[in-house]
Amino acid sequence: LNDFDTPLVYTPGDNEWTDCHRKEAGQKDPLKQLEFIRKLFFAENQSLGKRKLRFEQQSQMKRFSEYSENLLWTKESVLFATLHIVGSNNNYSPKDPSKNKEFEQRKNATVSWLHHISLKSRSSKAKAVVLFFHADLRFGKSEDKRTGYNEIIEELTKFVKTVNVPVLAVHGDSHEFIIDSPLKHMTEQGLEWPLDNFLRLEVFGAPDVRGVEVVVDTEKSQPFSFLPLPQIPWEY
User: Fold this and answer.
1) Burial 24-56 (b: 16+ CB within 10 A, else e)
2) What is the pLDDT of residues 152-198, one digit of tens each?
3) 94 CB-contact burial (10 Å; exposed 0-12 / middle 13-18 / buried 19+)
4) Cα–Cα 20 to 30 A to 225, which of 25, 149, 197, 202?
5) How far apart are CA 133 and CA 114, in angstroms?
């Protein structure tokens, strides 16, 4: 990853730690894997890649000193941030609450980080916000089908309304290329309607492995444009 000429910012996904208890993944302790990831990738407040990008980390806040993977930086008038939200229902077990300590603590950190990003975007007069996380939050599914994400979706909706600038959320997880506006709110007329300042980009995944180039032009009312890149040959 450090061979990239440009700065490279990484945010964890479920394969790296949440799913490591599975037999095919070696039956490892997910929390030990998460601890290893934090030490390996987030020990310093700078990106991977040959050219380093410095950023703010949530771990700089005493209350959330564990969450070095939640990052924030600004490029010109655009604020970028990562949120540690992963697939596999965000490591939440609806059947066994005793297993949810890690989930609850990280969810609280995520909500607090969203609040901080909101304050930062307004104080810096950001013209757009881009959020990166791993999980498909299952927008549009019933609440019982997305138990690990319900509160995150509620807080994300509040965030988008509060910052009142174009917001792009970029994630993976479900291996489909999607650009849409899945966050809904109730209008004064009692209608459920998409929040028009929110876009979601879900990037490609195996077997169709490719990147997406995103251009941000804050002079436009819709500042985000997208160009899928050629497929990358790969194999397991």
Assistant:
1) eeeeeebeebbeebbeebbeebebebeeebebb
2) 999 999 999 999 999 999 999 999 999 999 999 888 888 888 999 99
3) exposed
4) 149
5) 12
